[in-house]
Amino acid sequence: MNNVIENPTLMANAEALRQNARDASQMLKAMSHPDRLMLLCQLADGAERSVSELEELTDLHQPSLSQQIGVLRREGLIEGRRDGKHMFYRVADARALAILQTLYEQFCGAP
Amino acid sequence: MNNVIENPTLMANAEALRQNARDASQMLKAMSHPDRLMLLCQLADGAERSVSELEELTDLHQPSLSQQIGVLRREGLIEGRRDGKHMFYRVADARALAILQTLYEQFCGAP
DNA sequence: GCGACAATATACATTATTTTATTATGAATA
DNA sequence: TATTCATAATAAAATAATGTATATTGTCGC
Question: pLDDT of A51-77, one tens digit each?
Fold first, then answer.
């Protein structure tokens, strides 16, 4: 009788956990691309960067870069602001920022 | 002259950053799958779980479950130990554990 | 040790879906 | 008109989902 399947409370929790896992995995998926992660890293300090600045890091064609930026934007990870001819982007999701910080500690931390 | 492209130190840092981003994105990719993330969540406390236990959470066919476990194993995120007929898995990468903890805080934390 | 069963892993094939690169074009602003 | 950025369209490539079959390893009863 102590079975997860037969316990409605645990069932609900399991379902909530599953939903959280779906949300989280969707965000991770958006981040789990080398170029997109590089872009996010440039924004990980919370500051804004223009597309031109971001372009310097990746060696992507301009449309590809714009496309990757579009993915991050549609997933709500970043938001843009226009200033004259330039677009400035920043990380717009606190959860993403927290993950980026952990990634920095774990992958770029001191040896 | 204050150009990133022409500064060898920054160049080296950029290349190191790129490599870190590649490493990190590879790990994120392994985690960015709802079923695999659910599996990892079950192991996020550092404890071991048998495949049978893990199976209760996902509604995957056995071969599919085994395949996802295989992905995590090949990426080095988990390691297994055999005990009789059962295999017990645990998270085998401290970086993954740190990320999982952050995910828990951000996606399962109190409102 | 042998046969039967249980738990897990692997192999493979198939189909569907995603991702990526490329080229071209469009819109906003200076 | 030149810059900066975004979008569209599309073809190629990679990845994922699913199902079936089979292999491996171990247990237990004999």
Answer: 999 998 888 899 999 999 999 999 999
For residue A12, pLDDT beyond 70: no
Alpha helices (H) in chain B, listed in sequence order: 8-31, 34-42, 51-57, 62-74, 94-108
**What predicted TM-score, i.e. pTM, was given to this entire model?**
0.88
Is B18 in Cβ contact with A25 (below 8 Å)?
A: no
CATH class of B33-108: mainly alpha
pLDDT at A35 over 60: yes
CATH class belonging to A34-108:
mainly alpha
- Distance measured from the CA of protein residue B9 to the C1' of nucleotide C27, in angstroms: 39
**Distance between the alpha carbon (CA) of A3 and the C1' atom of D15, Å:** 36
Closest approach of B84 to chain A, Cα-based (Å) = 23
Task: Enumerate the domain spans of chain B.
Answer: 33-108
Chain B, 40 to 59: residues with Cβ < 8 Å from chain A are: 41, 56-57
Q: How far is A36 from chain B (nearest CA, A)?
A: 9
d(CA B24, CA B29): 8
pLDDT in tens, A83-108: 999 999 999 999 999 999 999 999 99
Residue A42 parent element (H or E):
helix A34-42
